[in-house]
Amino acid sequence: MSTNETLAQLSNQLVYASMVAYAVSTVSFAASLAATKGRDLTQAAAPVSRRSAKAAEKAEAEGSVLVATRIETETGIGDGGSEPLAPGRRAGNIAISVMWLATILLGAGVLFRGLSVMRAPWGNMYEFSITTAFAISLTYLIIALRRDVRWLGIFVVIPVLLSLGLAVTVLYTEAAQLVPALKSYWLVIHVAIAIICGASFCVAAALSSLYLISEKAERRTAEGRSYWGTGLAKRLPESTKLDGMSYRTIAFMFPLWTFAIVAGAIWAENAWGRYWGWDPKETWAFITWVGYAAYLHARSTAGWKGRKAAYISLVAFACFVFNYFGVNIFFSGLHSYGGV
Amino acid sequence: MTERTVDDGLSTVPQEVDAGAPAGFGVRGWLRWAWRTLTSMRTALVLLFLLAIASVPGSVFPQRGTDPAKVAAYLADDPVKGQILDRLGMFDVFASPWFAAIYLLLFISLAGCVIPRSVQHWRAMRARPPAAPRNLSRLPEHREVVSDDTPDDVLDAAAEHLRSRRWRVDVDREQGWVAAEKGYSRETGNLVFHLALVVMLVGVALGSYGGFRGNVVVREGSSFANTLAQFDSFAPGRGFDESSLAPFSFTLDRFTAEFQRGGMQNGAAREFSADVTFVPEPGAAPETRTIEVNEPLVVGGEKVFLVGHGYAPTFRITDKAGDVVFKDSVVCLPQDGNFTSSCVVKVPDTTPQLGLTGFFLPTAAVDDIRGPHSTFPAADDPAVFMSAWEGDLGLDSGAPQSVFKLETENMTRVGIEAMRPGESWTLPDGTVVAFEGYVRFASFAVAKDPGKELALAAVVISMAGLALSLLVRRRRVWVRVSAAAAASTLVDVAGLTRSEHTTVADEVDELASALGEPAASTADQEEPA
Ligand code: HEM
Question: Quick one: which of A23, A185, B252, B380 could link to B363 by a disulfide (CB 3.0–4.6 Å)?
Fold first, then answer.
């Protein structure tokens, strides 16, 4: 079967067009973030539990119902109230709309890439990267439908742009058929899930980084010291919230990642006769898995919650990224089909 | 109130008691201390890190298990560093004692932690939900409503509401409360996940104990019978019984390969398939089968995989007397993606002995820099470039020799020649080397892994457990009633969950609104913002 060049060309143009739209969206997100008034960091200096304990004490005097209300408003995402034109809102809305446009363009690009060769569009690193970028944006946009996460937008769009930029420059590979080892429906399952995981890992890493900044800003503010991240932290939800979001993303993703590895093992068993061979790609998938398992454990181990756990999440993400790019470039193994 | 006490009892996560110093110096004190330290979460965490770090060298250095040739090359290139690394097990990371030590400790720690937790969880699942705290307004999720019903009716309604939503419910009319708990499957899932990991390891061990893996190269027109002697390499597990090899055989009739032509991926493989005549057991009727990548041949618990291919040029060598001293197709090892393949022919039955080394090129080209090489993997324009050597092949010395390498120490080169199929070359002493053509060869791996079904089942169960453990929330709610003024009942509803989740708030809201109306004075504040 040969390649439909017209569709392949169209796909490339759509990917470029989406990059332009993502760039516009980045600028709007930045403007939105800059214009946001921000919250009072001193309010958040104590962790939720301690504060709710304090609140509960006060409740004796003030009447219990107030407490619930107070906790809710304190922990709520400061979305600038319900005024339609609160500072930064309009720019944020524009950013999201443009991001939808970009994501639709990119989705069409991915689709046509697949149609041009009549197979799932993830046979090489270029295709993984554009599909992952698409998955990251779509994940974010779906969350944004239900919650106000405009503050997160820029931290999602930038990795998307980076991933697309790398894809079209360094990783670009012409549309073509697959090498025989890749012709398996387990591949489709394995890679599709790995791509979703990559998207969630990326969002979780963004959240963990923001948590680290926000937590430090709150601590420094309480101590009356200055910190470069204060300005940014003001415009973010409070740190415990960020920590919880990052945990939930990873908790959602960890079983999927486990499944991606298992699907890969089943595929390997079919193709090479062993389900696990400690090939560099497999080894690093395992390291990533152990890293996230360590993160989940750290969160339930005294003395490891909070900052340490967040660092573990970042290290685990670094392992994932290394597996994605580094292993194909530095090591040779059975998985060296990336087209690099 | 700290977060820890809020969590109390909602999971069997072991409390991080500092194991402290061993109590006394008795052996038992030390043992107890060691066991408690080993089974603590913190140790598990450290072991997980160690496991991750320990696998890194396995991806950095070549491994004997996957690429023995590269290990040999490394040792030859840098003997000093190579020896040190080898001593440290860096070329056998995943089979090294220190790697095993880490995961065995991890699994002992896991068992030591998880088994007591399972017992504890079993008890908790059968116990009554804990009684309602005296002051529900102290809990993080709390609502207060007023009902027109009597306190007993409210308790019944609350119990009914909760039971229909599959909460485990306990009612105390005297004290005026309902306690309910839900989400035990979080803990169950978590325990199942951890225990299944241990079972999976058993499956992996079983596979490497009772299984085997062998490799064999088969040329078109040749056959392979599944016996130990016919394998080129064979790696049995410790407990593998060679008489249990399935008694099949097959002949490779045809191997086809297709490659991308043109474009950036010129030469990339597109399609491989091996057509074989397969005989399941001696005397059985032959069947024709096709083995492809991703489509192994399955026979009696063993699988035959297509793992590689290449070319085998056919030579016919006639000595000066006109006798044919060699006639065979010679398997040549592919050196690059375009199948520039290196060939060795040994002819021991002449005096002096004769040897040929050189290249088979499916699409031949020669240039000054690369010498003879192939420019495309398909046999578009095949040729061989061979050197002829005469002297002593060294086969009688007793030392084992690779068939892919010619020992030229005691030989002299007598000529070099390029040939296309059908051409022949007369050496100075009158020996004639004819290049008659080529056949393809395919390499197959035959493997058996008796533990893989167990490992797969364990992994599937562990994933189910994991999903439960991460998606379900263990939570409690309580309802307390107290008679208020004028035939109405004051109802306190409160909920508790581990800090990460917000659903219990919704559930408390739902229950509260099912039981009564917000008290008038606080109604406006009760609405969530
Ligand atoms: C030394 C052995 C181990 C011990 C003592 C241990 C202990 C625990 C405990 C107590 C929890 C419950 C935490 C909670 O409910 O939040 C847990 C959760 C978990 N463990 Fe382990 N574990 C061990 C090994 C492992 C291993 C080898 C893995 C896989 C790499 C693993 C993966 C997980 C996961 C994914 C969770 C779920 C985390 C969550 O519920 O938030 N554990 N472990």
Answer: B380
